[in-house]
């Protein structure tokens, strides 16, 4: 019985450290919220698309994932990566999904010069737009929409000056 308890504690310790490693991989100054797009729009009818991000590249092979790259602004001499976040989600059924990303979580961040979002998803349909703050400011909120998808893997990079 003692070996069994030790095994349980060992598994719990491993699981806690594994989750902790993934938590540390994400930038703690970026807040990410994922929502069902239809529900989000019904609950937030006052939100308007302020600045659509440019969809730079779309590649789609029916047997693999689609890769969409969105960006706004441009890199400037001396700017640096000030925040990054990357995560994957999967669902049992396809649906319209929205990620809402806010930088910084609180207070003022760096002066933002450029953002880039790379999304791999199960369909080639989506868009992204800035809804609050933006380029040349110290805060930004934007969304990434993926339509009729059951998988999303995204990486966001935010560049600026402190």
Structure description:
The structure is a single chain. The protein has 162 residues and is of the alpha+beta class. It has one domain (28-161). It is 19% helix and 54% strand. It has 2 helices and 8 strands; from the N terminus they run αβαβββββββ. The protein has helices at 2-25, 37-43, and strands at residues 31-36, 51-52, 54-59, 66-73, 80-103, 111-121, 126-133, 140-161. Strands 1, 2, 3, 4, 5, 6, 7 and 8 form an 8-stranded antiparallel beta sheet that branches. Strand 3 and strand 4 form a beta hairpin. The chain is globular.
How would you sum up this structure in a few lines?
The chain has 162 residues and is α+β, with helices and mostly antiparallel strands. The chain is built from 2 helices and 8 strands, in the order αβαβββββββ.
């Amino acid at each position: 019985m003692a070996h069994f308890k030790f095994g349980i504690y060992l598994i719990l310790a491993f699981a806690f450290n594994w989750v902790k490693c993934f938590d540390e991989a994400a930038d703690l100054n970026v807040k990410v919220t994922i929502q069902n797009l239809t529900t989000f729009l019904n609950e937030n009818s006052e939100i308007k698309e302020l600045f659509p991000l440019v969809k730079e590249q779309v590649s789609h092979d029916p047997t693999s994932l689609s890769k969409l790259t969105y960006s706004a602004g441009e890199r400037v001499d001396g700017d640096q990566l000030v925040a990054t976040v990357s995560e994957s989600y999967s669902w049992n059924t396809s649906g319209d999904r929205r990620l809402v990303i806010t930088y910084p979580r609180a207070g003022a961040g760096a002066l933002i010069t450029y953002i880039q979002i790379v999304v791999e998803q199960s369909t080639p349909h989506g868009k992204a737009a800035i809804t609050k703050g933006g380029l040349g400011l110290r805060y930004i909120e934007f969304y990434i929409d993926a339509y009729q998808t059951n998988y999303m893997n995204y990486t966001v990079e935010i560049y600026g000056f402190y």
